[in-house]
Design goal:
The protein has one domain. The chain has two helices and 14 strands. It has helices at residues 2-18, 39-44, and strands spanning 22-37, 47-48, 51-65, 69-89, 95-114, 121-144, 150-156, 159-163, 167-172, 180-193, 199-209, 220-223, 230-232, 257-262. An eight-stranded antiparallel barrel has the order 1-3-4-5-6-10-11-14. It is elongated. The two termini are 46 Å apart. Residues 4-19 have low confidence and may be disordered.
Amino acid sequence: MKKTILILFANIFALTAVAQNEGRLGIFTTIGKTTLLNKDDKAFGDYLPTFKPGLGVSAGYHYTLFKAVPMGITAMVSYNQAGQNYFGEYQDSTSYYAYTRLNYLRIGGALQFGTNIRRQVSVAFTVGANYGMLTNYQDRYELNRYNNDRFIVDIKNSDVSYYDTAHTKAALSDPLYNKTDLNVFGTLGLDILITRELVFGFGARMDMGMSGVENTDKINLITETDPPVSNAYQAFTNVKVKYRGPVDPLVKRAKTTNQSVGI
């Protein structure tokens, strides 16, 4: 059995060696409709359309397997923005507007399949995964009262600002969002040879988050007073629907994941 496997791999490498090989370096940009997908939030209907960009570099190696099947292996690094916009009305006729901004540095890899990459136009289908590291985030909530006064909670990383009758500053003991994220993605598009050395490609892309983005650990809020006061932060992870109470430490909230569909 071991000899058979070795012979099989030797034949694959031999066929690859005589087939058409090509390396590619690239720059890519994305724009997508992003969603912090939570089935409870989505069912309630407070979501607003949210679009975010991305920018990255890639390095790939393409070859023809068995002299017939074009394939490619690509590594990529990108900076991606994600998040969600919200708007809702309460029973007492007040309303709110809120948004979440999540920025990630993502490192990933992908496999590409399609038609002959040296044709003038070729079809490319890519599947891959990436590992994201949260670089910074913002979570902002604005409550509009009857007399047009606003109550605002603005969280930037661990810094918190409350705007009401007075301006209060505080800090979180832990971030609201997890530091890492795992995504899988797929693309379907076309590669166009501009010159022998220059390729332009475009396509549709879908990203699916595999891990939760909300930090469900206990978080304390520490006010900037003398002396500082520490209280349990009433996080949205303790409500069934985000930005809608009452807060319940025993609530079972659905997992929230990053999702994106774009080009």
